[in-house]
Design goal:
Elements lengths: L7 E5 L2 E5 L5 H10 L1 H8 L8 H6 L11 E7 L5 E8 L7 E9 L8 H15 L4 E7 L3 H9 L3 E10 L2 E11 L4
Parallel strand pairs: 5-6
Antiparallel strand pairs: 1-2, 2-3, 3-4, 4-5, 6-8, 7-8
The protein binds coenzyme A.
The site of coenzyme A has 18 residues, from strand 5, helix 4, strand 6 and helix 5.
Amino acid sequence: MTAPRGEILFEIGEYRVRRLSEEDAPMLRELGERCLDHIELHYGSPPDPSQLIPDLLSDLPPGKTLADKFGMGVFDGAGRLVGGIDVIRDYPEPREWYLGLLVLDPGHRNHGLGAGLMNALTQWLRLREAAYLRLAVSEHNAAGQRFWTRLGFQPVKQVIAEFGNKQSVFHVLRRALETR
Ligand SMILES: CC(C)(COP(=O)(O)OP(=O)(O)OC[C@H]1O[C@@H](n2cnc3c(N)ncnc32)[C@H](O)[C@@H]1OP(=O)(O)O)[C@@H](O)C(=O)NCCC(=O)NCCS
């Protein structure tokens, strides 16, 4: 099942999540300006506010194509882009999806939106017969580690990876989608 770019995928209260396209690049850069903390944590200094554009529109893991990439924008009730979600279908295994990114505007963190988005994304993934969701969280991201643990993600392994000019240890986590 595919979703055309621009289509609304799911809603949480006043927030709407829709698939992003190249036309959204200027808004993604603005969101990047507000999320420099997150970009610096992963890519090092100085943080590039345009980083969310490839993250959500074009970056792919080995062997995947853009048809497998779902870069999603989270829009508030006023239609402002306040977050991004990136998922890759069937990576690294069939029926296992990979969450490449979940980031919220700092003004929209810490009131349960992230948890609500993950709940809605889980329903969306189940409809696509996904069995597992996998992600990697940086050793430097203590709040992120608490968030994923609270949502039931379990450790798989640790890897060392380099993004931009920063090398970090990442905790690879995974959660079964069918049993919760
Ligand atoms: C990680 C992230 C997506 C989580 O989304 P979120 O909406 O902030 O998540 P939640 O609100 O569910 O939980 C975050 C915190 O708010 C608290 N919280 C949730 N609802 C709350 C409420 N109504 N009142 C007070 N606190 C609340 C949670 O207990 C949690 O606290 P903790 O940090 O002490 O563990 C978001 O913080 C973010 O974008 N961070 C930067 C990017 C990032 O790290 N992404 C993950 C990379 S792997």
